[in-house]
């Protein structure tokens, strides 16, 4: 299970830092409207220097998920052992999605993201916890290769209707410290 963690010895690199309004421009929403649902979401820059993944989950028309993801880019991190996020949650469960191709639809590697409620904290997601999924279902696929990551994404699919807000300061790759 992912855990809220204290900073420890590691080699790390920033995958995304939400430190200015331009930092959210590479992200777009992919919600259940693609299958007739009514959920909606967006990623917005907050003037306090972070991003908010906000929206509303609706179960109408067999919906129930909302997500945002980056355009294809250079997010590869060979040797990455985990992803560390600085986040603040609202009591709901989220998922971090990593994709290794540029396709619009395909396999994504998902890990559960349970942020601290109402306060900032760091959550560590080990690479081994990212499971291959296609349209929400588990599939057989090779293990995630961190050196091939092309897209990042955030998702809520907890089947609970209503508004949500996940605040994100940054996402960082982590590898074991050398020497």
UniProtKB/TrEMBL annotation:
InterPro entries according to UniProt: Galactose-bd-like_sf, NADH-UbQ_OxRdtase-assoc_prot30, NDUFAF1
A Pfam family annotated for this UniProt entry: CIA30
Keywords: Ubiquinone
Domain NADH:ubiquinone oxidoreductase intermediate-associated protein: residue ranges: 17-168
UniProt cross-references to PANTHER family, sorted A to Z: COMPLEX I INTERMEDIATE-ASSOCIATED PROTEIN 30, NAD(P)-BINDING ROSSMANN-FOLD SUPERFAMILY PROTEIN
UniProt similarity note: Belongs to the CIA30 family.
Protein name (record): NADH:ubiquinone oxidoreductase complex I intermediate-associated protein 30
Organism listed in the record: Accumulibacter regalis
């Amino acid at each position: 299970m992912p855990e809220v963690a204290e900073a420890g010895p590691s080699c790390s690199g920033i995958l995304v830092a939400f430190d200015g309004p331009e930092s959210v421009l590479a992200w777009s929403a992919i919600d259940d409207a693609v299958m007739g649902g009514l959920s909606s979401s967006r990623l917005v820059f907050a003037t306090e220097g972070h991003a908010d993944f906000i929206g509303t989950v609706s179960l109408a028309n067999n919906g129930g998920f909302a997500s945002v993801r980056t355009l294809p880019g250079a997010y590869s991190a060979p040797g990455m052992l985990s992803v560390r996020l600085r986040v603040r949650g609202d009591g709901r469960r989220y998922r971090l999605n990593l994709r290794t191709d540029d396709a619009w639809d395909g396999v994504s590697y998902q890990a559960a993201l349970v942020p601290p409620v109402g306060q900032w904290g760091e959550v560590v997601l080990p690479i081994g916890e990212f499971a291959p999924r296609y349209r929400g279902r588990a599939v057989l696929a090779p293990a995630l290769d961190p050196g091939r990551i092309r897209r990042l994404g955030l998702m809520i699919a907890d089947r609970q209707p209503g508004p949500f807000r996940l605040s994100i300061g940054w996402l960082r790759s982590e590898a074991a410290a050398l020497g």
